[in-house]
Structure formats: structure tokens, C-alpha cells
Amino acid sequence: MIDNKLEIAIDTLKKSGVRITPQRHAVLEYLLTSMKHPTADEIYKALEDKFPNMSVATVYNNLRILKDLGLIRELTYGDDSSRFDSNMMEHYHIICEDCGKIVDFHYPTLDEIESLAQKVSGFEISHHRMELYGKCGNCSHMKTTVKQ
Ligand code: ZN
Ligand code: MN
User: Fold this and answer.
1) Which residues of 20-33 are buried (b: 16+ CB within 10 A; e: fewer)?
2) Ligand nearest to the CA of 89
3) pLDDT digits (tens, 9 = 90+) for 68-123
4) Do 52 and 23 share a structural domain?
5) Residue where a domain terminates, one of 85, 100, 135
6) Could you tell me the residue range of the domain that residue 143 belongs to?
7) Which ligand is nearest to the CA of 143?
8) How far, in Å, is the centroid of ligand 1 from the Cα of 116?
9) pLDDT averaged over the chain?
10) Is the pLDDT of residue 147 over 70?
């Protein structure tokens, strides 16, 4: 399944005339196998042993190329640490307020909200974003352990 996704993504790169460098391949593969929505820095750290000469700028550059081709998406949270997601299906996110963990949440797309918002605002709505916040299993468990 993941191999297939990687093959399809590489095919897209080839068709777009984008050179497939070993680093680019590694960044793409890492994102397709990681479900963690990593930051550029986390990707850099995960790959630096394999590519000692690679810079964080190279990671950013590769992420931008992959994003422009629609192979990944960037999740911004108002700070400078964007997260990157290779799941291009419509989905929502649940975020841990303590450790920042982000997991996918599959729920039917709330299309009716978009049409209602359009109706009441006169805006032409392009998309929406929903995030649910709370404490992940690890963090709420840690809290309980500390109390005892
Ligand atoms: Zn947590
Ligand atoms: Mn996601």
C-alpha cells in the first residue's frame, strides 16, 4: 500500500520533470510512512544520519516542491513550525494540547457548513479546516500517574 503510494508519487515527480534526488526520495518516503505530521526539522533529524551533507534548507526546498505538486500538504498553526501531511484525502485532525501529537480523524466532510457559510456571508467558500483539541492517551495517563 505504502510502496504503491510511493511509486505513484515518484511517477508524478517524473511526469512533472522534477529530478528525483536521493534526498528528495527519502523525504517523500519518510512522509509517506510517517503518520506523525512531522515538522521540517523532525524530517531533517530523522534523515541526517543517512544524508550527513543534507541541510535543513534542502529539506524545506524538497517539501515545497512536493507541496507544489500536490503530493503533500502543509499544516500551519500560526507559528513557524509547519507540519507536513502526505495524506491527501479529506480528513480532520485531533491535536494533543500537551505534547502536540496530531492524529487523523476521518469524518464525512462537513459540506453543509460551507454552503451555509456561503449563504449567510456572501463569501465564495473555498475550504474549511477543523481541529479537535484534547489530551492524547499518553498525556492523560501521565497526568493520572503523577497525581497518585
Ligand atoms: Zn499528548
Ligand atoms: Mn493528517
Assistant:
1) eeebbebbbbbbbe
2) 2
3) 999 999 999 887 789 999 999 999 999 999 999 999 999 999 999 999 999 999 99
4) yes
5) 85
6) 92-147
7) 1
8) 34
9) 91
10) no
Ligand whose nearest atom lies closest to the CA of 139? 1
pLDDT at 101: 93
Residues 118 and 138 in one domain: yes
Distance 90 CA to ligand 1 centre (A): 23
Do residues 10 and 81 share a domain? yes
145 pLDDT above the threshold of 70: no
User: What pTM, to 2 d.p., does this model score?
Assistant: 0.84
How far away, in angstroms, is 138 Cα from ligand 1 center? 6
Number of domains in the chain: 2
Indicate which ligand has the atom closest to the C-alpha of 141.
Answer: 1
- Give the dihedral of Cα atoms 37, 42, 45, 50; nearest 10 deg: 20
d(Cα 80, Cα 2) in Å, to the nearest integer?
29
At residue 144, does pLDDT exceed 90? no
Residue 98 sits in a domain whose CATH number is: 3.30.1490.190
Of 100, 107, 19, nearest to 65 (Cα)?
A: 19
Distance 132 CA to ligand 1 centre (A): 13
Ligand of minimum distance to the alpha carbon of 36: 2
* Ligand 2 geometric centre to CA of 83 (Å): 9
- Residues with Cβ–ion distance below 5 A, ligand 2: 85, 87, 104
Residues 80 and 130 in one domain: no
Contact present, 133 and 95 (Cβ < 8 Å): yes
